[in-house]
Amino acid sequence: MGRLLFCIWLVFASSLLGAEPFLRGVTVSCQTYGPEWATPEMATTLDTLAGLGANAFAIHPYAQVREDGEIRFPANFAPAEIIKPARWAREKNLRMMLAPHLAYWGTKFSWRGEIDFAEPEQWARFFSGYTEWITGLAATCEQEKIPVLCIGLEYHMAVRHEPAWRALIEKVRAVYHGKITYGANWDDFAEVPFWDALDYVGILAYFPLCTVQQPDPDEALLRAGWKKWLARLADFSRRTGKPVLFTELGYNESSEAAAHPWDYKTGGRNAEEIQARCLRVALEETARADFLRGVFLWKWFIDLPQGQPENFDLRKPGPRAVIGAAWGNPT
Questions:
Q1: Residues 6 or more apart whose Cβ sits within 8 Å of residue 140
Q2: What is the pTM (predicted TM-score) of this model?
Q3: pLDDT tens-place string over residues 298-331
Q4: Closest CA to 127 of 162, 79, 101
Q5: Are 29 and 300 in contact (CB under 8 A)?
Q6: In what order do the strands lie in the sheet with 71-72?
């Protein structure tokens, strides 16, 4: 009865906030570079997520960055792996976020936050290619009525080039009328200088909730950690005048998941229980945050014959049960 009343309250609260529902999203990832999103198994995956209570999902098409600033991207901005999920989303009454990712593999960069160039012409080459890619995808989002576009993520060094980002956002606005965000890392969202030009403050919500010296953290410790971060985010939302969207939120199956949510490390004592506990508390605490427009959980993989176990894999029984219980459709 208590969960039923809470779900009714959520619906009522959403109506007071306007037409935008709270996005209960999951990022559907791929084992290769994206053709999986056009397969029948993707449509089945979306049914599975809706059955757990999700009302949104994200996919992340790739381009590649080179060390000289060149951006290599497909000539076709509207491939089947974007068009088919967008149309399935409308058929299944799901909201879709397109979150393009830059692949940095094979370069000196160990993550997107390290993408940096020594020469002005390299930065000019980077933003020229990146703007062409993102605006091309934005036009596809407009064509296919994709409601949310995330124009980038984790660019710790690149966000310092504010004029280039503002020019990119202006070009995106010229071809796309949906909601636009950017995904800042959990520890540097306050450093992004162009939130005023976007619709949401997007954050990769890998907030540390305790330290590694606090093994097997209990629920009270996890809740205290979330309350601290949510209070800071509520203040930031007020100051920017923008609602917050967690463009990623997830935990690996690791005994250190609460201390280092971003880490690919797995295993350790009580790893499964800690992952499930972290996810459950996160979904419960974020559902109460009135400044938050939604969360996109990281991540779900399409069930394909060649598929392998993956990090942050929400298909496992523990995370699935937590998601279903939190979002109203327990498995």
A1: 77, 78, 82, 83, 98, 146
A2: 0.92
A3: 999 997 765 566 789 999 999 999 999 999 865 4
A4: 162
A5: yes
A6: 71-72, 62-65, 101-103
| Six token digits for residue 238 | 């007020």
DSSP-assigned letter for residue 22: P
Residue 157 has φ and ψ, to the nearest 5°, of -85, -40
Task: Report helix, strand or coil for 89.
Answer: helix
DSSP string, 148-196: EEEEEE--TTGGG-HHHHHHHHHHHHHH--SEEEEEEETTTGGG-TTGG
Q: What are the tens digits of pLDDT across the range 74-120?
A: 999 999 999 999 999 999 999 999 999 999 999 999 999 999 999 99
| Number of helical H runs and strand E runs in the chain | 8, 11
pLDDT digits (tens, 9 = 90+) for 189-241: 999 999 999 999 999 999 999 998 898 999 999 999 999 999 999 999 999 99
For 175, what's the count of Cα atoms within 13 Å in the CB-facing half-sphere?
18
Report the SS3 class of residue 229: helix
How many other C-beta atoms can be found within 10 angstroms of the C-beta atom of residue 318?
A: 17
Residue 292 sits at φ, ψ, to 5 deg, of: -100, 130
In the chain, the amino acid numbered 67 is E
Burial (CB < 10 A; 0-12, 13-18, 19+), residue 269, is exposed
